[in-house]
Amino acid sequence: MDLPFVGISTFAKREYIKNWNNYKADVSIIGAPFDFGTQFRPGARFGPRAVREASTLFSFGHAGAYDHEDKKTYLDKSVKIVDLGDADIVHTDTVQSHHNICKAVKAALFAKSLPVVIGGDHSINIPCIEAYKDQGPFHLLQVDAHLDFVDERHGVRHGHGNPMRRAAEKDYVSGLTQVGIRNVSSTAKEGYEKAMEMGSDIISVRQAREIGMKNIANRIPKGERLYVTIDIDAFCPSIAPGTGTPSHGGFLYYEVLELLQSITLQNHIIGIDMVEVAPDYDPTGSTAILAAQILLNFLGFIFSNRVGL
If you compute the radius of gyration of the chain from its CA atoms, what whole number of angstroms results? Predict the structure, then answer.
């Protein structure tokens, strides 16, 4: 029967690929168990394992997942998802660890596969974006509670408060849409001013609810290649307490899902990362389940509505 609790916990119980040099797949799952960029509560290094285990609950198999609302079957056998395991992490060595994460993403891109990286803290987005250096321009959508636009703090430029600033500096990142930003943040006033000066569209949760999630999608340049980074603290900690920097007033599940579904109708998704799941702060496991469910549904939308191949 291959029940969810039987066997090894690869993502959605899909095939594990040890050799990254010669494989074919539509989606490549990559673990990035790195949390040395964390400023407060660590633990996101255990995120990839937790999300993988949670994903077995949704191991649909070859039949896919039928959605009676959309009247569609998502992620059937025509979509090949593989699990590449984890990028190797060298404790206390940010440079080498980030290099290894970048190498894993490049392997997926070389295979013409969609990289889906499970962190780890949000600093892992920095090597992910680095991997796209020769891939042509793209827009970046960030779903997050925090702006993450710090330039440098006490000499630190590659922590989990820096990734969107590092991304905005890339000449191949055409712009940023930052959604869910709220409350006391990791970035001071100057960070917000600099982000807007560099072209960011910053939208809080309250603004998002007033505008409407579909209308937020309309603010993202249509037809552009799009990389999506999702910090689990974008969600309200009432449904996602398992994170190092929870921020009340966050999104609920269907709000983010509506945004993700909307962008797949107008943009070609070239990469995804899901970060900051720290399972030890949530003994119920619901945060990891939320992360897995979001990723699987998002992948279903992408391959059902594939835009701009």
Answer: 18
Predicted confidence (pLDDT) at residue 129 exceeds the cutoff of 60: yes
Which three-class secondary structure state does DSSP give residue 229?
strand
Tokens 């990734």, residue located: 163
Q: In angstroms, rounded to a whole number, what is the distance separating the alpha carbons of residues 246 and 14?
A: 31
CA-to-CA distance for 20 and 25, rounded, in angstroms?
A: 11
Asked if residue 124 lies in contact with residue 117, where contact means CB atoms within 8 angstroms, the answer is: yes
Find the DSSP H helices in 180-307.
189-197, 205-211, 213-219, 253-264, 286-304
Measured CA to CA, the distance from residue 210 to residue 255 in angstroms comes to 12
Question: pLDDT at residue 62 above 70?
Answer: no
Question: Going from the N-terminus, what domains does the chain have, and what CATH number goes with each?
Answer: 11-304 (3.40.800.10)
Strand boundaries in 125-264, DSSP class E: 138-143, 173-179, 201-203, 225-231
Report how far residue 74's alpha carbon sits from residue 66's, in angstroms, rounded to the nearest whole number: 6
Model confidence pLDDT, tens digit, residues 140-198: 999 999 999 999 888 999 999 999 999 999 999 999 999 999 988 768 888 999 999 99
CA pseudo-torsion sign 112, 226, 147, 276: negative
Contact between 120 and 98 (Cβ < 8 Å): no
Contact 40, 159 (CB under 8 A): no
Whether a cis peptide bond, with omega within 30° of 0, leads into 120 is yes
For 228, the 3-state DSSP assignment is strand
- Which phi-psi region, left, alpha or beta, contains residue 71 (left: φ > 0; alpha: ψ -120 to 50)? left
How far is it, in rounded angstroms, from Cα 279 to Cα 107?
A: 28
Distance of alpha carbon 273 from alpha carbon 122, whole angstroms: 9
Q: How far is CA 247 from the centre of its chain?
A: 18
User: β-strands 27-32, 81-86: how paired?
Assistant: parallel
Token code pair at residue 168? 């905005």
Give the closest residue to 51 by CA, choosing from 241, 288, 285: 288
Q: Other CB atoms closer than 10 Å to residue 204's CB: what's the count?
A: 16
Structure tokens belonging to residue 219: 């603010």
